[in-house]
């Protein structure tokens, strides 16, 4: 007996495609979460190394030996259960520099305020004075603590505005090189790193046009060759025409890409700018829950889908 063909609703194909897209997105988020956990691990290792250097007097040779002993273990562990090849370059960079990537420290008595916020709000001198005694009395420890916090902020914020934070990353690298090579005096270093902290915390430079009055507009501006007019046009067309609940739903995401293509006229640029649009909170539709749009009977069926 042949299996009877099921007559499907017209919208079934689009709905199925959106579910597949959500499944793929969920798997990607799982991989990214695992990647984030590894980054935290390297931060913790870095912090423990700094503590042993301070308390037990570990020297550079001990740290070099530890790095050599751990490198192969870390390399093998990076692919045990998940394929993280897409992030391998970033992970390698973190592995090579984890000694300087310690978790940002909690500064008392300013509980809940990060070191970067402390520098912006109270000045770098007061921020240094608020450090533990073992750090504030050591110029290298002070510098590395500030640099670690700046680096952490750049990593966490990079997807929101790749062009801006890549520039900030390059500036941080140049400052670190200048400090380590003794190319600048310590006082000049502090002023330079404080200026960088101000920009990283703000998320934009002082020369950004006043019309770009939101993170989304500024991200578009920075990643479109600082074309103010194009950034404002794209902001307007996305803000006015984005579909409700578009993030994670393939047909609706395609609508966003069509809107972008009307301004960019290049498929590669559309895909690049779409990823930036995707990360901006201001372009997310705050409408009703998507699940609430389906009949109650469908909700039960959806919950039984095996992934």
Explained architecture:
The chain is mainly α and 307 residues long. The chain contains 14 helices and no strands. Residues 78-84, 97-109 and 287-307 have low confidence and may be disordered.
Helices and strands in order, then pairings?
Elements: H1 12-56, H2 60-77, H3 88-97, H4 115-122, H5 124-129, H6 133-136, H7 139-157, H8 162-180, H9 186-202, H10 215-223, H11 228-241, H12 250-264, H13 267-279, H14 296-303
Helix pairs in contact: 4-9, 7-8, 7-9, 8-9, 10-11, 11-12, 12-13
Based on the model shown, name its key terms.
14 helices, disordered C terminus, 307 residues
The CA-CA distance between the termini, in Å, is 30 Å
Q: Judging from the principal axes of the Cα atoms, what is the shape?
A: globular
Structural class: mainly alpha
| Unreliable segments of 5+ consecutive residues | 78-84, 97-109, 287-307
Helix content: 55-70%
> How many alpha or pi helices?
14
Q: How many β-strand runs?
A: 0
Mean pLDDT: 77
- Major sheet attributes: none
| Proportion in β-strands | under 5%
Compute the CA-based radius of gyration: 24 Å
Task: Give the helices and strands as they follow along the chain.
Answer: HHHHHHHHHHHHHH
Describe the oligomeric state of these chains in a short phrase. single chain
């Amino acid at each position: 007996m042949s299996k009877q063909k099921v007559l499907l609703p017209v919208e079934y194909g689009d709905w199925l495609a959106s579910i597949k897209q959500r499944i793929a997105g969920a798997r990607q988020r799982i991989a990214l979460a695992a990647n984030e956990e590894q980054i935290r691990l390297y931060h913790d290792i870095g912090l423990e190394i700094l503590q042993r250097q301070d308390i037990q007097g570990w020297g550079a040779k001990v740290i070099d030996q530890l790095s050599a002993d751990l490198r192969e273990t870390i390399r093998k562990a990076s692919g045990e259960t998940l394929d993280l090849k897409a992030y391998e370059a970033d992970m390698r960079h973190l592995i090579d520099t984890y000694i300087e990537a310690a978790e940002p420290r909690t500064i008392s008595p300013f509980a809940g305020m990060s070191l970067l916020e402390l520098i912006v709000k109270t000045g770098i001198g007061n921020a240094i004075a608020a450090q533990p005694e073992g750090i504030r009395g050591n110029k290298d420890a002070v510098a590395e603590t500030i640099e670690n916090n700046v680096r952490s902020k750049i990593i966490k914020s990079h997807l929101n505005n790749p062009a801006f934070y890549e520039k900030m990353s390059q500036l941080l690298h140049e400052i670190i090189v200048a400090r380590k090579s003794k190319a600048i005096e310590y006082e000049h270093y502090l002023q330079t790193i404080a200026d960088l902290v101000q920009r990283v915390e703000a998320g934009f430079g002082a020369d950004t046009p006043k019309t770009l009055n939101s993170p989304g507009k500024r991200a578009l501006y920075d990643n479109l060759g600082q074309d103010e007019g194009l950034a404002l046009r794209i902001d307007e067309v996305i803000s006015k025409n984005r579909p409700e609940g578009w993030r994670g739903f393939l047909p609706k995401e395609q609508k966003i890409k069509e809107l972008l293509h009307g301004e960019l006229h290049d498929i590669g640029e559309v895909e690049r700018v779409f990823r930036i649009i995707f990360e901006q909170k201001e372009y997310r539709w705050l409408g009703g829950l998507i699940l609430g749009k389906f009949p109650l009977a469908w909700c039960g069926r959806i919950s039984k889908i095996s992934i």
